[in-house]
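ok trying again, last paste got cut off:
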Amino acid sequence: MVNITILVRTGTEAALHQAGIIAVGAVTVDIPVRIFFMDDAITALMKYKEGKPIPSGHYNAETEIAFNKGIEKAKIMSWEELIVNAKKMGYVETIACALAMDLLNIDLRHLPSFIDKISGAAELVGGLNPEDVVFSF
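nice, full thing came through this time. structure:
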């Protein structure tokens, strides 16, 4: 069976949104998903829980304005709503990278409640099958 693994590294609103959209799409067609948050994504999740803004990911103000207007007009959910709804719709496991958590000296209480666990790269890679699809943002 094909599974989808999404690596979220960059920690921008755009990357988190893309991960949420892929997760919803996958569970809609009954494909299990793992979202592995690492590097800057861990910092973004921590900032988000603290109510601080996270970077948009658009380096061009014109693109950012158009993107935000498009999301508002299309009534697309926030990245957090997408991930939470994907978890309600099907199998979605959300994982925080153990090494990043150690390096940042944080634990699960510093991250949003939708994070299921902390795990290392060995478990992540060991759980991949040759037919799996991996996205990276």
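cool. The radius of gyration is 15 Å. The first strand starts at residue 4 and ends at 8.
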